[in-house]
Structures are given as C-alpha cells and as structure tokens.
Design goal:
With 299 residues, the protein is an alpha/beta fold. It folds into two domains: 200 residues, Rossmann fold; 68 residues, no CATH class. 33% of the residues lie in helices and 24% in strands. The protein is built from ten helices and ten strands. The strands form two sheets. A six-stranded mixed sheet has the order 6-7-8-3-9-10, with helices on both faces. Helix 4 packs across helix 5. The longest helix is centred in the C-terminal third of the chain and has 18 residues. The chain is globular.
C-alpha cells in the first residue's frame, strides 16, 4: 500500500498551537501538554502512542467534544478553510460549532462499530446526518448521496435498508466511515478505526481510506497504538508520550532515524519477520521433542 505525501509547500488545513487539556479531578491531570501540530491538505498524519497517552483527548479537543471535568486550559486551534479564511475553533459558539462539525471536520469514533443506532436503519442514520446540515436537500438528493457514499466505501447501496445487527463488523465500520464523509469534510479524524477487526478486513479498510484520500483530497488524522500500521499508510507520524508530542517526522525518517528513545522502543517492541530464529522456550519440554515424529507410544 502506497501513499502520496503532500507537497512541502502545501497550505495547512489545521494548526494546533501550545494546546493543553486538563481534567479537573480531585488531583488535576494534564492529559495533553503544550501540543503543537500542523496538518496539511491531502495528508495522512498518524498519531501513535500507548493507551492513556492523550491521543483521543487531543482529537476531542480539536473537535471541541470535551465535557467536564475536561477543560482546554490554553492554546489555539485554527482551521484553514479552502476559501482562504481562518477559523478559530476555540472561539466558535454552539450554533457555529454544530455547523462546523461534520461539514468541515468529521470524526470516526473509537468503537465505531457500536456507534450506530441499533434500532434505526442505515438509510435513516445517513439521512438524519445530511438533513441536520442540509435541511433543504430533496428526498431524491439525500437518497443519491447516501447511495454514493456507500459505494465509495465498498458497501452495496441495497444495505441502506439494513439495521446495524444485520451487518458484519467490517461493514459497520465502513458505514461509519461513509457517514463521516457524507458532507465532504476537509479533515477526517479516525480514532482506532480498525480495532476489533480481523487483519484481512483491516487491510481492506486501510486501502479504502488511502484510496478515498487520494480521490477526494481530504486530510486524515489516524489515531492508533499500532505503529507498524501507521508506518505503512501515513505521510507523517506524531508520537505521544504522557500527554506530550515527543517526536514528529515523516514515516520513512521515523522508521530509519527515530531520535526519541520512546519512539525507538515502540519500533523495537514488534517482532521482526526476518532474521535469526529466536530461542524456543517451554518449561520442562525440549523443542526437538515437540517437533520430532511421534513414536508409536505417543501415536
């Protein structure tokens, strides 16, 4: 799977500056510490790190989805629109924020397979999303757009009449991606979008994400703890540790020349598919005995 990195001179679509997010609990926790991040148009930016390092908190902050006790303590989030205007995301009021989400920036949530309403058809859920932002769309236009996004993610449009329990895990995930791209946003944030999927379905969905990015030219923030996966699909990768972005570089340089010790440990934590065979250790059992032809007694 190959990706096309954006030009170095590509105009940013999102800029995050000195962003700090605090959970105001009995003992306040700083979940994101002075994060700086720039996302370019058409770029796939990977966000890697162990569970609890602040990846999802950062994504929620960009979307303004936090609820108490979470609080954005400082920083600036700027969306650079296609028309050349800059939008201060943190200054948006409730009405403006509702219009901003999904239209310019959408999100595929962690555990997306369970995010669909179990008692409502796919058709109704796509329709409701469209009409919330495009209330004057005709019934025909809504149907055509819903069918189009399902085709783009590899789902038969006849599935519009299906309920979530009638879909496989991979199909439900594809429907969530289709819903996120309904309004043709300029940024799509994907939080662990392939979690709980088998490796074959996971790879199919990754191919779809890269293909759609190339076709529609939206930017992607892909969040996962799976660094090898990010090395395969990302243009650049940001590594988070304890709320801080400790390294940010192209996927190729990060793989070959990681500078931060934590990044190097992440890279070294996955087994190699080549090289010398490691020792086979099993308490009280010799490897040769296990692999030898069975004796008559054992047979």
């Amino acid at each position: 799977m190959t990706t096309t990195a954006p030009s170095a001179k590509a105009r940013p679509v999102l800029t995050v500056e000195d962003l700090t997010v605090v959970y105001e609990t009995d003992e306040p926790v700083t979940a994101v510490k002075a994060a700086d991040l720039t996302l370019h148009r058409g770029e796939i930016l990977g966000l890697a790190g162990e569970s609890g390092c602040g990846k999802t908190t950062l994504a929620y902050a960009v979307n303004r989805l936090h609820r108490p006790p979470a609080r954005i303590a400082s920083g600036r989030i700027t969306f650079h629109d296609q028309d050349g205007t800059d939008i201060d995301v943190l200054a948006l009021g409730d009405k403006e924020l509702r219009a901003f989400r999904w239209d310019r920036l959408s999100m595929v949530f962690q555990g997306a397979m369970n995010a669909l309403n179990p008692v409502t058809t796919v058709r109704a859920q796509l329709r409701d999303t469209l009409l919330a932002h495009r209330p004057r769309m005709s019934r025909k236009a809504v149907r055509e757009r819903s069918e189009d996004v399902l085709r783009r993610v590899g789902v038969d449009p006849r599935r519009l009449g299906s309920y979530p329990h009638e879909l496989s895990g991979g199909m439900r995930q594809r429907v969530m991606i289709a819903m996120a791209m309904l309004l043709e946003p300029q940024i799509m944030i994907m939080d662990e979008p392939t979690t709980a999927l088998d490796v074959v379905v996971q790879r199919d969905i990754l191919r779809e994400i890269v293909r759609l990015r190339d076709e529609l030219d939206f930017a992607v923030v892909f969040i996962t703890h799976d660094l090898p996966l990010l090395l395969e699909i990302s243009d650049r990768i940001a590594v988070m540790l304890e709320g801080e972005i400790v390294e940010l570089d192209t996927a190729d340089r990060l793989y070959r020349e990681a500078s931060h010790p934590y990044t190097r440990r992440l890279l070294g934590s996955f087994p190699s598919l080549s090289g010398e065979r490691g020792a086979f250790i099993r308490t009280g059992v010799d490897e040769t005995a296990e692999t030898a032809e069975p004796t008559k007694e054992r047979a």
